[in-house]
Amino acid sequence: MKKKPIPKQGEVYAAKLPNEYWTALVVLHKIENSYLVYATAYYELIPPTLEDTRLTQFHYREDLYSKDRKPAMYWLDGKPGADFHLIGSIDLKEKSEIKESNTYAGIWKNYLPSHIMWEKEREAGVFQEKIQSFEQADSKAVVEALEDDVFWNLIDLIDWKKRNPMNPLIGRLKKDTEEMIFAFEETLSHKLFLLDTPAHAGIPDQPETYLSVDAFLYARCAVIAKGKDCFNQTVKNATAINMEWDAEELLEVASEAYSKKTGEPFDYASSYDYETYSNRLAWEGK
Questions:
Q1: Residue 20: count of CB within 10 angstroms of its CB
Q2: Where are the domains of the chain?
Q3: How far apart are CA 102 and CA 94, in angstroms?
Q4: 15-34 tens-digit pLDDT
Q5: Which of 13, 137, 201, 252 is least surrounded, with the fewest CB atoms within 10 Å of its CB?
Q6: What's this model's pTM, rounded to 2 decimal places?
Q7: SS3 label, residue 44
Q8: Could you say which DSSP state residue 2 is in?
Q9: Residue 60, beta-bridge partner list
Q10: Using CA atoms, how far apart are residues 137 and 258, in angstroms rounded to an integer?
Q11: Cα torsion for 38, 148, 235, 218, to the nearest 10°?
């Protein structure tokens, strides 16, 4: 088998996201087997070409804490997987001097920059119902999702050897800010939404097959609870989820953490509905 070439500075790698849109990452720097990349401003239904100026522009994200908009740059380990397509190289100009980022996004072959899809959909209002105003003065607005690596580091706290596996995660969240708890719920809801498809339910060609909406939801929770690699592979490969998997308790993590922290009920409503059949585009296109 022919080995994949080592990514080089300035190379552009395009990838199709789960919603069929294309985006691209550009290599900024390399240290041993790790690559510093930036997410570009490209986001279209067709693959990019090198002539598109958006490949030289950053995709910007809002920092959860400072609220400043910052370029999306992160480290990835190893070579890109099959989802990424090398389309050529661009002149980085002053960007060639960028060699630092505090964000680690994981193993490149298992990674997709799905945060771009999520953020673009949020901006456009896609998959969102109009958010109702709460009457209480202290009601919470929808917040941004967590950085992917932050979310998965939290999920890794789940300890299946314990009688209550979610307790370490709940304990960690209750020590953080209320906004962090809301952001965890927002991120979890979106990932559950992405798994709400006929293919993941195992019935893409069998429309009359019975599907337990609760079992499918709890099985989707289990995919996330099993960690980043399991989730990424399931999303990218549209793999049917084992309906015997069950991590229903993951749905209550944010609520329990918030209640233990504040002594008040959890009143946050995420912008994505994770109940089965909520991903209408996926189910209507079945």
A1: 9
A2: 11-116, 134-284
A3: 20
A4: 998 888 899 999 999 999 99
A5: 137
A6: 0.55
A7: strand
A8: P
A9: 71
A10: 18
A11: -170
